[in-house]
Amino acid sequence: MEDHVYQQCINADCRADYAVDDVLFACRRCGSLLDVVYDWDKVNVPGSLAFFEQRWGTAGRDLVGRADYSGVWRFRELLPFARLEDIVTVGEGRTTLQQADRLGLDLNMKPGSLFLQYEGFNPSGSFKDNGMAAGFTMARRLGRRRVACASTGNTSASMAMFASMAAPAGEPSVQGIVFVGSGKIAFGKLSQTLDHGALTLQIDGDFDACMRRVLEMSDKLGIYLLNSLNPFRLEGQKTIMYRVLEGLDWQVPDWIIAPGGNLGNSSAFGKAFLELHHLGLVDRVPRLAIINASGANTLYDMVNERGLCWNAGRVDHDAIADHYRRMDETGQRARTVASAIEIGRPVNLTKALRALDVMDGVVRQIDDETILDHKAMVGRYGYSCEPASAASVAGLHLLLDEGVISKSERVVCVLTGHSLKDPDATVKYHTGIDVKAAKWPDPVPPTGKRSNHPVEVADDLAAICKAIGELAPEEAQGPRN
Ligand SMILES: *Cc1c(COP(=O)(O)O)cnc(C)c1O
Ligand SMILES: [Zn+2]
Fold this sequence. Notes:
This protein is of the alpha/beta class. Helices cover 37% and strands 14% of the residues. The chain contains 16 helices and 14 strands. The chain has helices at 63-69, 101-106, 128-142, 154-166, 187-195, 207-221, 231-237, 239-247, 264-278, 298-305, 317-329, 349-358, 368-380, 387-402, 423-431, 461-471; strands at 5-9, 17-19, 34-38, 96-99, 114-118, 146-151, 175-181, 199-203, 224-225, 255-259, 287-293, 362-366, 411-415, 455-457. Strands 4-5-13-10-11-12 form a six-stranded mixed β-sheet, sandwiched between helices. A hairpin with a 7-residue loop joins strand 1 and strand 2 (17-19). The longest helix is centred in the C-terminal third of the chain and has 16 residues, at 387-402. The site of pyridoxal-5'-phosphate has 18 residues, from helix 9 and helix 14.
């Protein structure tokens, strides 16, 4: 076992340890989520966060230069599982903290109070690239050439992009395998996934069904899973908070507000601040607000209605199981215009409870109409975002109205994805034209030499394995035809 980094079960009654290169996505003893844990005494951590400024802008062609150019890897001392020679980067994380006074004014906030962390500037257009850089670095270290995810769209777009670039010329290519639910994915995201050559399986089911299947399938076929269940992905997403701090000259804001889907991002933010505080690199921790869509409000329900909490690492798993059983019995499915957060069973629920604990957090829910109104507000005053991202600003509005946040507190809303991911939602909002409801002529089979057609497959493990076995042989190279 490498001595400064290992994986550990987050359940306080278990805390089983696993080697850093053990491939598992749940504790073998108790089934809980895993953390990447460092023995910081054995890591060379800079004494001050300002150390990282010197790396901004260097864009050399050697390993160090490429790592320094990345908004993830220039903070590599704070995610020290990665060996320099394994680092995978596509130039992710060069994103902007935007002072948003005009939007703030519209919400009655004082100038200098509201900031937007615009993650739509990532190469694939969403924050997922931060996590994929870390996930692919681990895949490279493990020598995995087949990677998979279930996705509401952005995870697949990001994974497909990284897969298309992860292998240097001369090495076998990396095959991305993507599970998307039937008819749910925004076209901007689907188009990226297809263009980057991922094998795209359209399962007859929703995101939660896709998640179950990709877990089974990756286990059975030995394919590396890159959903946010993968704890290394969250290591990359911690850097979003480092860049927020950098944008504020290393001052800690009062609030971080983020939309909640699978809750990987909020979990990563909690871990980032837990570690920074432990290392003495910040003197306090901001508060966290996680915003659900009302149509996909499991976290909101569990925390605010049922009192679920971190409980020092002893989470009430029976209450969660009970909740999911009830959702199944009543046929309750996640449903929201904010497709990126249309998730009923968030895989990082327990880690998000820890983040809420560490960051003295709150959870709110917002209906679709209000999300879209705030999306238009964001677009009106600056870089625009996709619907899920605007939940953060709508959540801020609600918390201001409630008096939980005051108008002179310093607030950072994380804008998770670019508006061009889902132009249909924007066009429909402004014109009433519902592209998705329009009747299309029957599709003509694609004839492009490199057409990468999604494969429809039943929600059935045998059928899925068959599809993958036929379409993605172990060492698949080059485009299929
Ligand atoms: C993935 C995603 C989310 C949800 O993030 P989680 O980490 O799953 O909670 C929100 N917005 C966008 C644009 C996303 O792509
Ligand atoms: Zn355990």
